[in-house]
Amino acid sequence: MDKERLIDRIEGFLQEAELKPIRIMEVCGTHTQAISKSGIRYLLPNQVKLLSGPGCPVCVTNEAYIDMAIDLISQENVILATFGDMLKVTGSTSCLAEKKTNNVYTVYSPEDAVDLALKHQDKTVIFLAVGFETTAPIIAATIKNVFENGPTNLLFLTSLKRMEPVIRLILNEDKKRIDGLILPGHVAAVLGAEAFRFVTDEFKIPSVVCGFEAKDMAEGIHLLLDQITGRTPLSFANLYDRCVSPGGNKLAQQYINEVFEVKDGIWRGIGKVHNSALMINQKYKRLDATHKFTLSEKMYPESSHCQCSEIILGMKSPFECHLFGEGCTTEHPLGPCMISSEGACAIHYRYGRVHNCLAK
User: Fold this and answer.
1) How far apart are CA 145 and CA 141, in angstroms?
2) Residue 114, pLDDT score
3) For the segment 67-103, what is each residue's pLDDT rounded down to a tens digit?
4) Pairs from 101-107 (Cβ < 8 Å, separation ≥ 24)
């Protein structure tokens, strides 16, 4: 069944049910893109509200991490290698783009940072390693390879987050706020679908692992609504079994477990989340930039202007921020949710205008 027919079926049985508003969260930033780009968000009945969760790694990177990166630029003979999305994310006072010199390079993978270190062996190259369990395996594999084979002038400043703890935090705070969950497909490919079964088993909320095509998303939403409205029993489902197995990618998990240890992590706009960070363990400590340069991460109070914290927690939609589309645009972003291509505000701003339906 194609996307349009699925949407028609959803609209039909919801009209019959005459239910109160239904709130479904998609955790992954790529899902937010797929839902908006395909038009699904704007085709659903008004009573179905799709909320974006904390699945944008740039958006949840703490201000102190950016401050540490900026501090490193001032160190003698230091080069930073970073993904492009990180350049405009502000720390406590400024961003890398404002401080950018010839010592800051945009890269597309950890391997690019290795190449950069080989070209500049008289410098210390520091790779800003940001992401979730999706990017953690390739970063871990790179750290292991550099540890064993060099180059000796490459270090890593990590801000790697784990998905399960923050999902638990959201569901524990207000179980009634979220009626259904679209689980992060990329992370599930690494960890396995079974890593997220707890959402349904423990919190009694229907949840589904989805792919990223329009039909994948429509099928997932349809399945969740069937359960939320009582048409089918509560269940957990993996609709992305072409890429996600029950147990996940064992080799990727092996790299994560070998190189990193689980610690408490600081999430921008959320604060400290227990056991939510992957940090370089003692064996590979000499490649940790915080160890060599004695850096430490701290929490900052959330800006009273930007409402990214409420948005990534599913408490608000982007258009409910008074700055959205006015003082805050993709051309002049005021917060990380408008900066990153996976940020909910940037996605709503880009595709909401195309569909002429910002108020959805």
Assistant:
1) 6
2) 98
3) 999 999 888 899 999 999 898 888 888 888 887 678 9
4) 101/73, 103/73, 103/78, 103/79, 104/73, 104/79, 104/80, 105/79, 105/80, 105/81, 106/82, 107/81, 107/82, 107/83
Specify whether 34 is located in the same domain as 72. Answer: no
Tell me which residue of 58, 301, 31 sits closest to 182, measured CA to CA: 31
CA 309/CA 224 separation, integer angstroms: 26
| Residue numbers of the domain that contains 34 | 3-57+164-238
Residue 203 CA to residue 260 CA, distance in Å, equals 29
Q: In the prediction, which pLDDT does 297 show? A: 65
pLDDT tens for residues 295-347?
766 655 555 467 778 888 888 888 888 888 888 888 888 888 888 888 888 88
Domain count within the chain: 3
Q: If you count them, how many residues does the chain have?
A: 360
191/230 same-domain check: yes
CATH number, domain of 208, equals 3.40.50.11750
Examine residue 299 and state whether it is found in any structural domain, yes or no.
no
User: Which has the minimum average pLDDT: 47-51, 147-151, 236-240?
Assistant: 47-51
Residues 50 and 131 in one domain: no
